[in-house]
Amino acid sequence: METAGQLSKFGYNVSLVEKEKTTGGHLNKWYKLFPDRRDSTEVKAYLERITSDKGIKILTGTTIEKLAGTKNGLSVYTDGGEELNADAVVVATGFDLFKSSRKEEYGYGIYDNVITSADLEEMFRKGRISMLNGRSPKTVGLVHCVGSRDEKVGNLYCSKLCCVTAVKQAIEIRENLPESKVFCFYMDMRMGGAYYEELYREAQEEWGVNFIRGKVSEASESINDKLIIKVEDTLTGRPLKMELDMLVLMAGMEISKSGEKIAEASGLKTGDNRFFSPADPHYGSNRSNIQGVFYAGTCTMPMNITETISHARAAVSDVIDFLNNNKKLDG
Amino acid sequence: MKIEGKRAIWSEYQKEIADDKYFYVRSCIRQNFFPGSEVAFLRIMREELGKDVYEHPCHTTCSGIGYHGDVVPVETAMTVVARQFALMTEAGYKNYVPSCITSFGLYTEILETWHHFPEVEEKIRKQLRKATGREFNIPDNLAHASDIIYKFRKEIGTKAKYRLINKNTGEPLKVVDHIGCHYAKMFPSKGVGGAEYPYVLAGMVEEWGGTVVDYPERRHCCGFGFRQYLVQANRGFSVACSKEKFESMQPYEPDMIITNCPGCPMFLDRWQYVINEIEGKRYGSNGEGIPVFTYEEIAGLVLGYDPWDLGLQMHQTDCKSVLDKIGIDYDPDTKYQISGEIKKVKEHNFINV
Lengths: 331, 353
Fold this sequence. Notes:
The structure holds two protein chains of two kinds.
Chain A: H1 2-9, E1 14-17, E2 32-33, E3 38-39, H2 40-50, E4 56-59, E5 64-70, E6 73-78, E7 83-86, E8 89-91, E9 95-97, E10 114-116, H3 117-126, E11 139-146, H4 162-176, E12 181-186, H5 196-205, E13 210-213, E14 216-221, E15 227-233, E16 238-244, E17 246-251, E18 253-255, H6 257-266, E19 293-295, H7 305-325
Helix pairs in contact in A: 1-7, 3-4, 4-5
Chain B: H1 3-12, E1 22-25, H2 30-33, H3 37-48, E2 53-54, H4 64-68, H5 74-91, E3 95-98, H6 101-116, H7 118-132, E4 141-142, H8 145-151, H9 153-159, E5 174-178, H10 181-184, H11 200-207, E6 211-212, H12 227-230, H13 235-249, E7 256-259, H14 263-279, E8 292-294, H15 295-302, H16 320-326, H17 340-348
Parallel strand pairs in B: 1-2, 1-3, 3-4, 5-6, 5-7, 7-8
Helix pairs in contact in B: 3-15, 5-7, 6-7, 8-11, 13-14
């Protein structure tokens, strides 16, 4: 959306193709953003504003099957059999949240009160955190790195945002349920963003969130419908067994299925992490291996919203350079 | 608990199981622990299902206990296993069926290793040739004997004389299923239902009328754990492991436990006696122990086999409560007599009849 808006500002005709019924992607499902707890609708409103220009044609409910170079530029083929012609294409297919049921040992989709970070955001938006029986949880555990840094599921990379999401959500649980106890189970706290570390400190000092360094090995359900988790506290070197009312899985990021499909059909290179592989990791992160095809945002790697918008704007620079000079870019 | 979530996982972990012509290899220890189980398997396969099951008199230990006990090197274990495959090849069979879970785990591990490192397979072939002059083919199909019973659970169900239902209440019996660690924990895709929510025994229980108890320590080790027991100084850990499971399952008031491993029924059965001796504690809802069975014993019971032919008199924890709940017709006076099917086995030389 950012790329479309900026290109339109420069006077280019832009077609924005969205597979869902509405634009906005994962932002539609998030309630408040880290680290400043801004309402996500404000960012969404900005993106909608910049894409409301008449020069942008928005095609929702349309899936791209393939991109291909032609004599006159590029063709984009949709699932409806339509062929769209363009001088340049920006791939911004984003990410899918890791399917948490793949971590079978945590029991997502099996045990009643095992939910994901996305499910919790939905509860925040509805204004009520509740278990399946309608009651409020008194003890909540948040599991970091679900589907990230995990050889077993084939994702060696860090999704980068789950730690700060967990910290933000832990604070929000404590705000909503002041009597609750919240435990975060982490491998490492990776707070590498502006004001992330401060938020982590706030969670401990002001909200009493407990951070336990260790991976949850398994979850199960007791006869009283409580969740029982096993985890190793690696700082004390002791195994723990805890009863919880709710377990929240911090689902990591993976290249979207639709992005994967386009990559395969179009011959766009992907990396070992399966995300789109830019032409150059340092100075060509918006460029692809196909002339005229560019990347924007999390289709190349996990990013937060600020980074995604910046990356999308950087793509605009490469696209304009390409269109004006109509030649193969360096790198 | 959302059963549909489990069913989704079960549907993902289905394996290919051959439907006839099996090369069956017995366990080193099951014939001592639960002597009627393997005979029951053969009887069910041959007499009830009409299958071709072959046993080779030269089959030896697979060396899995030694391997997992850290006293047999992996190359030795591989060469021993290669010899077993040679026996199968010589007998003209292609579907390998171990009775033991640790054997199944070892065979799976070795086949996977050879698949990824063909040079290791080649080395083992040379070693076997040098030592015995034998050659072998890789089995077309490797399935644990419980996989086979699982595959034919519906056929067994249609022939069943009894169901896992309490005849007095009409309620399904509550069954704890315990899967041997080496069945799927090493290679989840090789087990029916995977490693976290295995279905191999649950499928039998459901088919034969019972209901499966999902309790918090369902995945916990039975207590055998090889070095927990084999090293005498560690045996306290072994009892403690079993105790953890009993404490966890007790609130659900299970009627029985079903297992598919040589060690699991042994330890879940015998340690109940030991815990009772040490602490005076019993875990069954009737003030007695929770009876522990092998899957062959349960299959035999539902098919109407005499409990004493199945070897239930060899259990430390009395099985009478389950026999009475199901309404099985048995004669308590013949409990320790050699009779019926056991005589038949002796007369007919049950190997490869």
